[in-house]
Amino acid sequence: MYDVIIIGAGVSGCATARELSRFQGKFCVLEREEDVCSGTSKANSGIVHAGYDAVPGTMKAKMNLCGNQMMEKLSRQLDFPFQRNGSLVLCTDETEYPRLQELYERGRRNKVEGLQILSAKEAREMEPNVTEKVYAALYAPTGGIVCPFSLTIALAENAAVNGTEFYFREKVCEIRKEKEGFQIQTEENLYHTRCVINAAGVYADTIHNLVSDEKMKLTARKGEYCLLDKSAGTHVHRTIFTLPGKFGKGVLVSPTVHGNLLVGPTAVDIVNKEGVNTTAEGLAKVIAKGHRSVKNLPVEEVITSFAGLRAHEEREDFIIGETADVPGFFDCAGIESPGLTSAPAIGEYLAGLVSQKLGLHKKTAFAEERKGILNPKELSLEERNGLIQRNPAYGTVVCRCEGITEGEIIDAIQRPVGARSLDGIKRRTRAGMGGCQAGFCMPRTMEILSRELRIPLEEITKSGGDSKILAGNRRMQREESK
């Protein structure tokens, strides 16, 4: 019997797992995919929002501001990249200026610090590549950027080190309320728990509706992105937004913490909750709208495109708390933008609610810090040479585009909640994220995965499940046919 089972290993689920692991108890996370950060959390803008957009008094507004304020300290504790680069919201028409002022006043009411409305001249001095059509801009110095993968993985690893169990390829099929808790049936196993936290992303309504008569409906809101090479990474230094509309904050142009340039997303409501394919129409809209806010956008430097889904709830607020008609069942649903920013605060808030419900006590010893994967590029030449002498794997470059070594890939596999697929390696090390998009390094990465996991090459997958890369070993097939 677990004290708490969290359904979903996205950023909110992992943040909650980390905060719960501060308490004495037995906790686990069930994830339908093969790794953490495989759903909504893997495909977003990586923006740490300042907090001026959310309606004052909403859960979004509260969690956004708190999560933003927590991010810097958390990045130091858990060793993931974060930059407070600031953001600009552009107003390109004098008639829309009142909307910019409204956004400024909303931010003031949300207690966002340092907000300023800039003139066109001031905006262009700050960011020379913003459109010449800019009339005014809202500047938010507390805005930032983070790597969604690094944040989620860091939270999961820290939770695991502090005792939380993670189980993957565990799709929840049924939840039954029992006298002293819940019975959770997955496709493979049966689990028992005193409390449930539903952090299932776009499927949080499905999970909620298994137990509650007060039905929930979430809409999958699709967003497509273009990622540009690092050669374009300094085209802008701050995150450039347009005035938000009915479907969100619009298409942004932003540097990433790894030095690339990101443009997107679109916002289209779809029925298919697995619909993460990109479209020619969607990507064309991304580029066109990017050009409207940033001039000379170097779109010839696009190295990849991707799409993600956001869990939109019609009341446009986060649903966080105990379900009224099912005591012990807690929702963490509708976590769309600014969900990534809000996740640390959401985790802290939910862990507080559940620990109070169960009467859990804080541990006397909690490992609050975590060290990320060693990056040899950050070492001095002398330090790096010493590292290679101690461990020659750090002298073998596997991914030339990103300069990732065999040692880093081995570390990614052997860590708590380690990588089990090519995408798992990519999220943890960036091997395969460069200009060639794994064209060069994939075979060698597969060999390392096969060796370290002690499984045949034919069993290596791109992202778990049926996503196998090889159909069979041709050498063995030829020998068997003789």
What does this structure look like?
With 482 residues, the chain is of the alpha+beta class. The protein is 31% helix and 22% strand. Strands 1, 2, 9, 10, 11, 12, 19 and 20 form an eight-stranded mixed β-sheet that branches. Strands 13, 15, 16, 17 and 18 form a five-stranded antiparallel β-sheet that branches. Strands 6-7-5-14 form a four-stranded mixed β-sheet. The termini are far apart. The mean pLDDT is 95.
Question: Can you tag this structure with a few keywords?
Answer:
482 residues; alpha+beta; eight-stranded mixed β-sheet; five-stranded antiparallel β-sheet; 13 helices
Strand content: 15-25%
Largest sheet: 8 strands, mixed
| Radius of gyration from the alpha-carbon trace, in angstroms | 23 Å
Mean pLDDT: 95
Structural class based on helices, strands and sheet pairing: alpha+beta
Quaternary structure of the protein: single chain
Cα separation of the termini = 54 Å
Contiguous runs where pLDDT drops below 50 for at least 5 residues: none
Residues in helix, %: 25-40%
Basic shape: globular
Treating each run of at least 4 consecutive H or I residues as one helix, how many helices? 13
Total beta strands: 22
Can you summarize this structure?
31% of the residues lie in helices and 22% in strands. It has helices at 11-20, 59-78, 97-109, 120-126, 148-161, 204-209, 280-293, 339-358, 381-390, 406-414, 422-429, 442-453, 474-481; strands at 2-7, 27-30, 47-48, 82-83, 87-91, 116-119, 136-140, 144-146, 165-167, 172-178, 181-186, 190-198, 218-228, 239-242, 252-255, 261-264, 268-270, 302-313, 319-322, 329-333, 397-399, 404-405. α1 (11-20) links the parallel β1 (2-7) and β2 (27-30).
